[in-house]
Amino acid sequence: MTMRPSVGALAAASLVILAPTGCASRTEPTSRPDVILIVTDDQGYGDLGVKGNPLVRTPRIDAMAARSAEMTRFYVSPVCAPTRASLMTGRYNYRTRAIDTFVGRAMMEPGEVTLAEILRDSGYRTGIFGKWHLGDAYPMRPIDQGFEEALVHRGGGIGQPSDPPGGEGKYTDAVLFHNGRQVSTEGYCTDVYFDRALDWIGEHHAAGESVFAYIATNAPHGPFDDVPEKLLAEYREVDLGNDRFPQERGHPLPAEADVDRRARIFAMITNIDENVGRLFNRLDALGMTENTIVIFMVDNGPNGHRYVAGMRGWKGHVHEGGVRSPFFVHWPARLKAGHTSEHVAAHIDVLPTVLEAAGVPVPEGLRLDGRSLLPLLLGEPVEWPDRQIVIQAHRGDVPVRYHNFLLRGPRYKLVHPSGFGLEGFEGEPAFELYDMEADPLELEDLASGKPEVVAELRTAYDAWFDDVSHTRPNNYDPPRIVVGSPHEEVTVLTRQDWRHTKGRPWAPDSNGHWEIEVATAGEYDVRLRFPPTERAGAATLQLNDEIRSAGLRAGAEEHAFVAVPLPAGPLRLQATLEQGSDTRGPWQVDVSRR
Description:
alpha+beta; Alkaline Phosphatase, subunit A; Jelly Rolls; 3 domains; 11-stranded mixed beta sheet; 7-stranded mixed beta sheet; 24% strand; disordered N terminus
């Protein structure tokens, strides 16, 4: 695979409030640390032996946890793209335009300043391996946002409409994108990510260069039909029923479980664990372990109702089971093994924590929502002002006040669990209130008995919602995909990034449009790709108000509109396939300048 440098960073992000950071006082190591951030997809808090799961095998991550410092009350968003936007920016995802997971709502504003950009500009070499999920086309790809090395899949996961032709649903021998170029790989995808990350780390270590490696697996996200076979066979020999998991405290699991699916998920998790072991073996062999920061966390709750240490909820939920993540920080040079901090922390804190640990200042004028956790991880006496963290996510083009959110303070948690899958809710919000000091598993709702606390936290939430919603004009409009720039020869438009206008977003008969920006006026080829047509019909291409049409033969799988003149500037592009009274959108559209 050929290498090429990343595209330069774009404009600075909007200004927001910066929480004060602490200052570490322990002796600095002689050189700045390397940084490795591991984020798994849909794993959940309870999918680790160290968190009390008696059946999943994660001995290497458990051993890492024993050697690490830990934030024990660490929060993420209930779904993936919002968490990833907050990780990369140190800001609430509602400031970044990445408010959902698909149909144009997961693309991050290109003007946001990322952790990769800051570290790259300070001399770190930066690489991402696995899942990005913040935009697949210029200027939102990881190579446009600070990563010099990128081996990633498109969209929110393999097995989605953003898969390239020939790579549909393939976890084994996946078709990925290396520095913007499509490549075929050999082996299971998680192994491939770690293989490349370990080689890349070794290459730059040999050159005396510091690295930031973001290893973001798409496992154990579905689909589940392509998993490590040997591990699956082993888990199929184990009784994985719900009655095999601890349920003495908290919310019980239902009587029945899909044990085959659970075996597949656990096989994916143990494969991740094996790769974490390979990572530490390589760091040991290179002499890097002592002064390398390795962070392990997950992006949201588990993809299904399974063990979460007695907590309530799973992926998409704003109760604890949907938003709690382990957060282990392994750095022998500075952090004491087994040290824990119970202060409330969240994904927005990762960027400022890494920057302070690396001795890299926050760029002038860039203000963050997060706060450096380094003093807490070091266990030093530090003044730590109380704060409130808000997490909110749900379907829809714009956030809705009070819909599926939590506000977590030092003691109380206000929550309105109205459902991630809905675009809104009816009537007045039915708030729940929990005393997280006395009732960390959310067993007793105190809202009716403490209306004054509910009112106080509701006011705080309102201030937060108003603030994040006015980060920039038209704050929740999707970023525009740029076509015809020198940075991308062919722009691929997929259902991942369209704004759907008909049917369910990814249903076969759905349709949508893309908001694009034409960088250079000229003639373009626009190629529609779709499943074979059952009978003859027509294809139409609509560019703003201009419509072009062409006939389609039965069995056609693509059609190209050739030498289409496109003016520079913003443009709405929509394509439609017509067969009698049936209409649907294409699967993907390729746009290239002639």
